[in-house]
Write a structure and sequence with these properties.
Helices cover about 35% and strands about 20% of the residues. The protein has about 325 residues and is α+β, with helices and mostly antiparallel strands. The radius of gyration is 32 Å and the shape is elongated.
Length: about 325
């Protein structure tokens, strides 16, 4: 009986060792940008540690890292480097240090460590006017159900349908996007438009989010890939590298945005200034022209009066 018990204990210990070994086995994970990845007991799941400043998040290698976590890590100071000067100007494409939920989604209200706050959509894009932290509230995180990725191709010699098929295949394989979420890919001359659609009823807990996909694509096209260098970004069309550039991402929400026209953009102000200057210049020219015409008419009347006096004399 004792021997049988010892055998059972030995078998259990052996199983535990196998499980531990399986869990400690390293596995590659391009999406997580981190080499601290371990294979799980099921042989399919690869979990990675995602360092985000002092925080360590565990992510599934089969899914894209949430955009909120990626933005947060980018906004934090890099260790081992000299801190950036406070007066430095940085073209950060709307990058800020976001507040994230436990699952990596954006919190509805963002303040960027300031007393000024605003509401964002599920893509982390501001959708309301900014307000005071004490009074600004956001009742819900409005979902972005439609994302348009616009890009420009450098070579227009390839057939449109071939280009569309290559880009669709890239999105499906590189970002794990189901075909149902790729609503349309349109090629119009040098421009390419990718429509990704995913409403609230379509989004399941384990599904990729189209906002995350757009963020990964934007980084790839700009040459600042989040995915590891071992899996470089590239589109192949007819056996050659197909180059795209100048990405522009547009977001459409399930509810209308609440941004007012209280603050005019620099472009609108510039147009108004040009129009006002043109009007003022026109008025000045008109006044000067009338003055000259008035002087000419007065001189002409004076000459006619002098001629009349000479005739009378």
């Amino acid at each position: 009986m004792r021997t049988f018990t010892m055998l059972r204990l030995g078998a259990a210990l052996f199983c535990c060792l196998l499980i531990a070994q399986a869990q400690s086995q390293e596995c590659p994970c391009a999406q997580a940008v981190d080499k601290n990845c371990t294979q799980q007991a099921d042989g399919q799941t690869c979990l990675c540690n995602f360092q985000m400043g002092p925080e360590l998040k565990q992510v599934n290698c089969n899914k894209l890292v949430p955009k909120c976590w990626l933005m947060k890590r980018e906004s934090l100071p890099l260790r081992g480097r000299r801190p950036r000067p406070e007066s430095a100007l940085i073209d950060n494409d709307g990058l800020y240090n976001p507040d994230c939920e436990a699952d990596g989604t954006f919190k509805a209200r963002q303040c960027n460590n300031t007393e000024t706050c605003w509401c964002v959509n599920s893509a982390g894009v501001r959708r309301t006017d900014k307000g005071d932290k004490a009074s600004k509230t956001c009742s819900e995180l409005v979902r972005t159900h439609w994302v348009v990725v616009e890009m420009k191709r450098t070579d227009t010699s390839d057939a449109d349908n071939v280009v569309e098929a290559a880009i669709r295949n890239l999105i499906k394989t590189r970002y794990n996007v189901p075909d149902k979420l790729i609503d349309r890919i349109e090629v119009d001359g040098p421009y390419i438009f990718v429509d990704l659609k995913q409403n609230s009823t379509q989004k399941q807990s384990n599904d990729v989010d189209i906002a995350d996909v757009a963020y990964y694509m934007e980084k790839d096209i700009k040459g600042d890939s989040i995915i590891q260098l071992s899996n470089p970004f590239g589109i192949t069309v007819n056996g050659k590298n197909f180059v795209v550039q100048e990405p522009l991402i547009m977001f459409m929400d399930e509810k209308p945005h609440e941004i007012s026209m209280k603050r005019l953009t620099a472009g609108v102000i510039a147009v108004i200034v040009v129009v006002v200057v043109a009007i003022i210049a026109g008025i000045v020219v008109l006044v000067l022209t009338r003055r000259k015409r008035g002087k000419y008419e007065k001189a002409e009347m004076k000459e006619m009066n002098e001629v009349q006096r000479e005739l009378n004399s």
